[in-house]
Design brief:
This is 3-hydroxyacyl-CoA dehydrogenase. The protein is α/β, with parallel strands linked by helices. It folds into two domains: 178 residues, 3-Layer(aba) Sandwich (Rossmann fold); 95 residues, N-(1-d-carboxylethyl)-l-norvaline Dehydrogenase, domain 2. Strands 3-2-1-4-5-6-7-8 form an eight-stranded mixed sheet, with helices on both faces. Strand 5, helix 6 and strand 6 form a beta-alpha-beta unit. It starts with 7 loop residues before the first strand and ends with a helix. The protein binds nicotinamide-adenine-dinucleotide. Nicotinamide-adenine-dinucleotide binds next to helix 1, helix 5 and strand 6.
Length: 327
Amino acid sequence: MAEQGRRKVGIIGSGLIGRSFAMIFASGGYKVTLFDLEPDQVSKAKADIQTQLGSLEREGLLRGSLSVQQQFDLITGVTDLATCVKDAFFVLECVPERLDIKRSVWSQVDPLVTDDVILSSSTSALLPSAISEGLRHKDRFVICHPTNPPFYAPLVEVVPSQWTRADVVQTTMELLREVGQVPVLVKKEVAGFVLNRLQFAIMGEAWRLVRDGVISAGDLDKVMSSGLGTRYAFIGPWETAYLNAEGMDSYVERYADMIFDIQKHQESAEKMALGPTLDAIKTDMEAVAGPISDLQTRRQWRDNRLAALAKLKVEMAAADQKAGPSK
Ligand SMILES: NC(=O)c1ccc[n+]([C@@H]2O[C@H](COP(=O)([O-])OP(=O)(O)OC[C@H]3O[C@@H](n4cnc5c(N)ncnc54)[C@H](O)[C@@H]3O)[C@@H](O)[C@H]2O)c1
């Protein structure tokens, strides 16, 4: 754990993701400066952070050894970009998902920082080479794509470009681990990185199954929430396969033909569009999650469950660690 106030992280953009990262770094004892184009947004972010830190404490999910007040005091809202990035060893940009906005921010930051800084973006889908091309510090640029909400779903995809230095990637992974996130390395630039490629592959198949009248949208969601998803909260598809046979060779010997026969029936991409398939999905979603006018109630319900699962996982990881390798 970092000593309180040891080093500084500069965060640009104080929306949903910027404020979450501010809390995450403060939990590790880092000083955080938070900047936004809209000064009002920073004040709102600070108020929201205080509320969220209180909730995390009540849920037993407050990270690190510092109190809510100590963590909150480490986060300073600032009104200019230069102050935000000055003396920061890690600068994280969390502005809207538009290449022109991100490139404009980085062209302003680039001349302000020293040669030992790490520059990072939380982009969901823009490629690191596209954002960092032309920057003097492009070899110090790496993407940290979080999962929302980052406190409950700690995965971060770390995506370097072909010119990112190996030590920048390594330090970024270590930093994320230190503050309680779960970084994975995406070794090559690919559209959608990994999480969204998997998510959209599932969504594509889910669309076709509803479109073809195989299953209702509500029941399809149950296949995930009461079937695949319960397992995937703890183990991924590869460990599932490993455990479901006597290891990988045995799994492939037993199931590869069956899997391939089914995969051959899975069509290529179809763009989702307005029409009868979407109407059927909308009807089911209104029945399951309520009307659009009251989505906040269902979002709160979802977040409570994610918080409970996150707490369970933290407790189980601590128990596993205590039990040692024989668990
Ligand atoms: N929301 C998610 O679920 C999620 C998940 C993973 C990654 N991301 C990515 O994180 C990034 C931020 O997303 P978000 O959901 O926090 O967006 P958001 O709209 O909540 O926040 C963006 C903030 O950036 C500010 N801003 C706009 N232009 C700016 C500029 N030039 N300089 C400084 N601040 C500026 C806005 O005022 C706003 O406060 C995006 O690239 C997004 O794709 C979002």
